[in-house]
Design goal:
The protein is mainly α and about 160 residues long. Helix content is about 65%, strand content about 0%.
Length: about 160
């Protein structure tokens, strides 16, 4: 058989060794480029995560600051309301105390006279004193017999006990 006439005419002619080396070299460069891209992508991912963590921390600090400011406003407002209410309660208490002192002063002499007569066993009526005792529950009378003023008791919130 002649060389030109072979039974395998469908097989491509053998390629040169340098063409295969060129393809392998190109594929190797492509693989190196892909590996480099993976490295750069991983570095970008780390940067994005670090930047996200910084932003999260900044936002957390801003939220904490806003919450502290709002809490301070609420506390200050509540404190001011409590102080105002406390002052009102104090004024009522001072007014009640002044009224009690006035009643004590007004009924002191007649109370002492009544106690002295009770201790001495005297059952005669007491002379009328010139001071009037301020009471809201007893009507004023012009009788010659003076009755001791009714002692009023007060609760801890300044209201009279009934």
């Amino acid at each position: 058989m002649a060389r030109g006439k072979t039974a395998h005419t469908d097989i491509p002619p053998p390629t040169s060794h340098s063409a295969v080396e060129t393809i392998v070299s190109a594929l190797s460069e492509l693989e190196n480029d892909i590996d480099g891209m993976y490295g750069r992508v991983e570095e970008m991912r780390r940067r994005i995560i670090a930047h996200s963590d910084e932003e999260i921390e900044n936002l957390k600090q801003q939220i904490i600051t806003l919450a502290n400011e709002e809490a301070k406003q609420i506390v200050d407002s509540t404190k001011a309301e409590a102080e105002a209410e406390s002052e009102e309660i104090g004024e009522v208490g001072r007014a009640n105390l002044a009224n009690i002192r006035k009643n004590i002063k007004a009924s002191f002499d007649s109370t002492v006279d009544s106690i002295v007569q009770t201790v001495l066993g005297d059952t005669t009526t007491l002379p009328v004193t010139t001071q009037k005792v301020e009471t809201k529950s007893q009507p004023s009378s012009s009788s010659s017999v003076h009755q001791p003023a009714k002692i009023r008791k007060y609760t801890s919130d300044g209201k009279p006990v009934i």
